[in-house]
Design brief:
153 residues, 4-stranded antiparallel beta sheet, 3 helices, 8 strands, alpha+beta, 41% helix
């Protein structure tokens, strides 16, 4: 999903692109943004000459990471209610009861829930989808555990 960034400080079309798993990449005029000197930084041209240093900063409780331009933070995504954030992590509870298999199913459910949080649906629809994903992860874990148990027995 693409998140455009508009600023009077930076020249060109800047877009933050997130993959389904949340990996963030920065683009300038539809091309990967030039890397900065330090790890995790990018160099973007300023409107008044020179270059701005841009960093992608993870931000817990928001749907999209924050962009930091020359030390000034710019929020791109909306703030997520704490209940929604907790609900997105529910599939990870399978780690406690399901071991490695539960962790794999729970991790997949968590990744899907993170993309649901970033979607354009209403909050009520997001809650229903995340509950469905959580139940689906549990059902998948039960099915895989049953098949594994039958194969070993």
């Amino acid at each position: 999903m693409d998140y455009p960034f508009e600023s009077s400080e930076v020249e060109g079309k800047v877009v933050l692109r997130l993959s389904m798993l949340g990996a963030a990449k920065l683009f300038l005029n539809d091309q990967p943004a030039p890397r900065g000197e330090k790890r995790g930084t990018f160099r973007l041209p300023k409107t008044k000459g020179g270059e701005a240093t841009v960093r992608i900063v993870p931000s817990f409780g928001r749907t999209v990471p924050t962009l930091e331009v020359d030390g000034v933070k710019h929020e791109l995504g909306e703030k997520v209610a704490m209940g929604m954030m907790v609900m997105s992590f529910l599939p990870l509870g399978l780690i406690a009861v399901g071991g490695a298999l539960g962790g794999a199913c729970g991790g997949a459910g968590w990744a899907v829930n993170q993309s649901v949080l970033r979607s354009q649906h209403s909050s009520a629809i997001k809650v229903l989808i995340m509950l469905g994903v959580t139940l689906g992860a549990i059902a998948l874990w039960i099915a895989l555990a049953t098949m594994f148990h039958a194969a070993v027995s």
